[in-house]
Amino acid sequence: MSVAAPNSLSAPDYLAAHTGLAHRVRTAGILDVEGEARAAFLQGQLTQDVASLSAGRTRPAAALTAKGKLVFLATVIGLPDRIRLLLPAVSRVTALEHLRKYVVFQKVTISDRSEDFVRIGLYGPDAAGVPAGPGEILLPAEGEFAAELLVPVADREQVRSRLESAGSVPVPAETAAILRVEAGRPLFGQDADSSHLPDEVGIDSAISTTKGCYVGQEIVARMRTYGRANRRLVGFRFPGGLVAPGSLLRRPEEETPGKIEQGRVTSAAVSPRFGAIGLGYAFRDVSVGERLVSAADPSLDAIVAALPFA
Prior knowledge:
The chain is an alpha+beta fold and 310 residues long. The chain contains 7 helices and 17 strands. Helix content is 19%, strand content 31%. The longest helix is centred in the first third of the chain and has 11 residues, at 92-102. The radius of gyration is 20 Å and the shape is flat.
């Protein structure tokens, strides 16, 4: 796992992302679900209420296994004749295979449109003034992004030129990683994966508590009624320097073999605003503000922080 490189507070891309307008082209998986039973089909597959989703609206959602573990995270987009799922690129094949497994005997078709569109994330307060052009879909804020544009791939360069003419600054991968960690947005495949329950990842907005049954609902309901997740996504501050992703964390006084892990780092970055920070998981009895140390190098501290960083 990579560690985001440091950036200067005055670097044009970082500054624009916080005070003006900046953009980044993002790879994405895009699946279109069509057919008269599309809403009913997805209603039984996703954690979000899809049946009441009207054209032009979006909602976050997730798909789960029967044991309540994450299959993929998505943004659900209501369109007049279809429902579009916007996914991390790493989830495209998994999501397609998962949904097609359940679509047998349904009046539904699923098509992969990932090559037809490009996702352009917009940063900064000036993103509010960016309109969607013909054929484009304007998406709401998510994590570090103030808004996003879903653009036909043929219009990619035209839209990029339009943004840069409006003063938008391109954001490279290193700065994008810093901004993501600052905002506390988990990256699927790195900070969240198929080993996690949704409550561990902190995706409450993606889960409807009023809709009917869906795959994995029983586990979600049981967890919320009778218990809580053993671990949850948190931020970490590293006052003594970066703790690498993948590192196990323990309490300073806990050295009993087999009882070491109280946390784990999944992302790390050096932020111009906050210094060395990271994302990861802490066990439920580890409180915000508590000090953990690297199991491999106890001289490195990890202070548990609330998300997003402030």
